[in-house]
């Protein structure tokens, strides 16, 4: 059974970059990245609120890809109070699930954010409103990724963990 991989963390922590780096290690059509931002912001232009449609849509997209035998990486801030129940359902249905969460200080996220194109349009004050600190999921032990992990180290670990399943 192909695994579900969940990569969570605050804005600018490295989730999307990591998900894409892991996906590129697979042949085309073997690994899907389901990005919270792309579904919520680009597909349906919706606010991040409890009970919002994007939560169900992320779950449906992930289930569809898992049903086709693809490795599925769901990535995003995925705030525990809004997305936790959905992530638990996905994990239960996937059989094999791997969870990773970036745990960076706000200062570390600002440093990473400064190197992104979005830094020109998203000020630190807005970043602060999105920052929630460490938010562990109650139903699973996540691999906790701090600022000392390089992109290669994180993507190597996730790819190796997928291969060990």
UniProtKB/TrEMBL annotation:
The organism of origin for this protein: Nocardia mangyaensis
rRNA processing recorded as keyword: no
Keyword terms, alphabetized: Transferase
Protein name, as recorded: APS kinase domain-containing protein
Key word Cell membrane present: no
Domain APS kinase: 5-80
InterPro entries: APS_kinase_dom, P-loop_NTPase
A Pfam family hit: APS_kinase
């Amino acid at each position: 059974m192909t695994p579900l991989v969940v990569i969570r963390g605050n804005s600018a922590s490295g989730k999307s970059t990591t998900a894409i780096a892991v996906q590129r290690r697979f042949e085309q059509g073997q690994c899907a990245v389901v990005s919270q931002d792309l579904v919520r912001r680009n597909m349906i232009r919706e606010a991040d609120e409890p009970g919002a449609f994007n939560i169900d849509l992320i779950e449906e997209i992930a289930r569809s890809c898992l049903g086709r035998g693809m490795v599925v990486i769901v990535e995003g801030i995925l705030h525990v109070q809004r997305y936790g129940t959905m992530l638990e359902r996905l994990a239960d249905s996937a059989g094999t699930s791997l969870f990773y969460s970036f745990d960076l200080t706000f200062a570390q996220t600002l440093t990473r954010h400064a190197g992104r194109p979005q830094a020109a349009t998203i000020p630190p004050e807005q970043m602060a409103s999105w920052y929630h600190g460490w938010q562990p999921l109650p139903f699973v032990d996540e691999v906790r990724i701090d600022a000392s992990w390089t992109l290669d180290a994180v993507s190597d670990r996730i790819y190796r963990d997928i291969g060990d399943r």
